[in-house]
Amino acid sequence: MPSPADDNQSNRKPRLNRRDLLQGRLWKLIRPSERPPLVMRYPKTRADVDASPPETSPPETPSVPPRSIGGIAIEPVRPTEFTDTAPPRSFPVFRPPGAVAEPQFLAGCTRCSDCADACPYDAIIKAPERMGAIAGTPTIDADANACLMCEDFPCISACEPGVLSHALPKTIGTAKITEHLCLAHHSTTCTVCSERCPTAGVIEVVDGKPTIDEAACTGCGVCRYVCPAPENAILLMPLFNRPSLP
């Protein structure tokens, strides 16, 4: 004779776990005794087999071109071809005063070092090999030696190819003050940049804080070279658009 515990166990409603719920298995909530019997239909004769609907495969997904948007074909992209004839890549660098436009400069510069030899302050150096197409061409690194903007510009006079010209502006870049790094902007008296600037009137001190007239700045880099701030407060930017010679 079944015990009351067995009766309670048989009458207990089946539980539905989270996986069954998410997969739509609500039929598990029905007690086995209440579930309708499964009707299995088997063909009995050859005629029944012939009358059965043919098995069908899932509809084929329309082919989509390798490059398409929503099944709409677009023009295929040709694979990138890498060749050795790619145009040389130029880096923004500081050229000596009077430098022509960069494409013309690279085409005409012979890497002779005459301009560097003529500089009395050793401010002109050759670009290192890691700089690719511009390697060996004359550059200025203000962190090593700033350009002092000589009155007669011997570097220009020494350039036989003519990529440095007296007829062109002598500006090589622009300097900016990074205020949060500048000592004078943190209640510390400092006017070194304005005192050492070789061009009069470019850096003025207003209320104890230096300001740069960017329109008059030549980008020589002296202010950066002498800046005593723990993290240099002078930001130099080379002149990107230089004029060309006919």
TrEMBL record:
GO molecular function: iron-sulfur cluster binding; metal ion binding
Composition bias, Pro residues: 55-65
Domain 4Fe-4S ferredoxin-type: 101-129, 208-239
InterPro entries attached to this UniProt entry: 4Fe4S_Fe-S-bd (IPR017896), 4Fe4S_Fe_S_CS (IPR017900)
Pfam families: Fer4_2, Fer4_7
Keyword terms, alphabetized: Iron, Iron-sulfur, Metal-binding
Superkingdom of source: Bacteria
PROSITE patterns: 4FE4S_FER_1 (PS00198), 4FE4S_FER_2 (PS51379)
UniProt-annotated stretches for the region Disordered: 1-22, 37-69
Protein's UniProt name: Quinol dehydrogenase periplasmic component
Lineage per the UniProt record: Bacteria, Pseudomonadati, Planctomycetota, Planctomycetia, Pirellulales
